Amino acid sequence: MKISRVSVWGLPLPLAEPYSYSGGRLTVTALDSTIVRIDTDDGLHGWGEACSWGDSYLPAHGAGARAALQTLAPFLLGRDPRAVDDINRAMDFFLPGHWYAKSAADIACWDILGKFAKAPLWLLLGAEKAKAVAVNSSIPQGTPEEMIANIARARAAGYKTHSAKIGGGKIAEDIARINTITAALPEDENITFDINRAWVPARAVEVLNSVAFRGWIEQPCETLEQCAFVAARAPQSLMLDECLHTFDDHLAARQMRACAGIKIKPLRAGGLTKARRLRDFAENAGWQTHIEATGGTVLADAAAIHLASSTAPANRLASWLCHPHLTLDIAPGQGARNTNGFAAPPNLPGIGVAPDENILGKPSAVYE
Ligand code: MG
Q: Please, what is the angle between helix 298-309 and helix 272-285, to 10°?
């Protein structure tokens, strides 16, 4: 089986509501997604997606993904898409880095592998059955009262795990957010406060030692070294997200005892092939994980939920879904969707999401 065509779409994805985080430093109103369809000479095809959370969240750029895929396409054509490790070795040889762009091609190859094997990805990734995973809300930064009202709306949709965005402003404001929001949270619900790297280490240590909250604190500072400094001086467990990219970053985090949990995002890792390695490492490290898309449609969400579903329950906390935040749905009714706080991966060959090409329109580039 050989790759015969690579089609690429640039797809603007407006958010239903603007989203502010990291002390208001970062506000996102629309996402810039890249959808990839890979066709093969024997008629099978697969779908992948690369979509970051705006341009300021990660070193991942929508237009950059399309440019990188233009460079990569000649090296993908003629290769066997089922050989996902060799596909990744080839992509890394001909274009080092640019993991986010490669994630779309890698995920499309996994979709083809699943269709060839007539097996859903959760099975190929090691699960006995399609286990539904808990999904978590994502609460943009606001006043404590606004955030509590937002959590109540998420609760009405079945969410019992929440990720609340804080950081920035006066120290007293972050302390008030943590104290007021946790006091209003029912006993059977969990919350992570995600700072999205807005704090410097001294501020993180001061805030975290001034609150009674003992749950998860996520990405307090910019770098791994800064977060490790905080981890050694704060009573909460740290979850790391934006500062982890390569396998070596994860190894360093383990050696530095910088965290007890990590976010695994196929976009940031470079696709499912590398995200699977990080998942295996996390299980071995005893870390707890959130495995989820960085952004994108139900296609990117479903790819991540297959990996989350195949992860040991003890090492899996919850997964966020991006598609409920969007005004555009490219595969209505399909994929991993929230059902009373849980999402199950599709029980179909491959990812199990077939985007409607009438909605996608004409591809922005075709390589063959
Ligand atoms: Mg985060």
A: 40
Q: What is the pLDDT of residue 75?
A: 98
Question: Is the residue at 339 inside a domain?
Answer: yes
159 and 100, same domain (yes or no): no
Tell me the per-residue pLDDT of 261-276, one tens digit each, with 9 for 90 and over. Answer: 999 999 999 999 999 9
Looking at the domain assignment, is residue 352 inside a domain?
A: no
The whole-number pLDDT of residue 23 equals 79
Q: Are residues 191 and 84 in the same domain?
A: no
Q: Please check whether residues 320 and 209 belong to one and the same domain.
A: yes
pLDDT in tens, 48-69: 999 999 998 999 999 999 999 9
Q: How far is the CA of 164 from the centre of ligand 1 (A)?
A: 9
How many angstroms is it from 14 CA to the middle of ligand 1? 20
Angle at 260 between CA 310 and CA 165, to 5 degrees: 90
Within a domain: residue 55?
Answer: yes
Ligand 1 centroid vs 321 CA: distance in angstroms?
13
Segments forming the whole domain that contains residue 168: 123-343
Mean pLDDT of 281-287: 98
Closest to 133 in 3D by CA, of 122, 124, 142: 122
pLDDT in the model for residue 168: 80
Known catalytic residues?
A: 165, 265
Q: What single DSSP character describes residue 185?
A: S
- CATH number, domain of 157, equals 3.20.20.120
Beta-strand ranges (E) seen in 229-308 are 237-240, 261-264, 288-291
Residue 261 lies in a domain: yes
Quick one: pLDDT band at residue 115, thresholds 50, 70, 90?
very high
Do 190 and 211 touch, CB atoms closer than 8 A? no
Same domain, 151 and 252: yes
**Domain co-membership, 190 together with 329:** yes
Report the number of distinct structural domains present in the chain: 2
pLDDT digits (tens, 9 = 90+) for 296-328: 999 999 999 999 999 999 999 999 999 999 999
What percent of the chain is predicted at pLDDT more than 70? Answer: 100
Q: Ligand 1 centroid vs 366 CA: distance in angstroms?
A: 34
SS3 call for 29? strand
Confidence band of 114 (pLDDT split at 50, 70, 90): very high
Rounded distance from Cα 281 to ligand 1 centre (Å) = 19
Tell whether 187 and 59 lie within a shared domain: no
Quote the ligand 1 centre to 78 CA distance (angstroms): 38
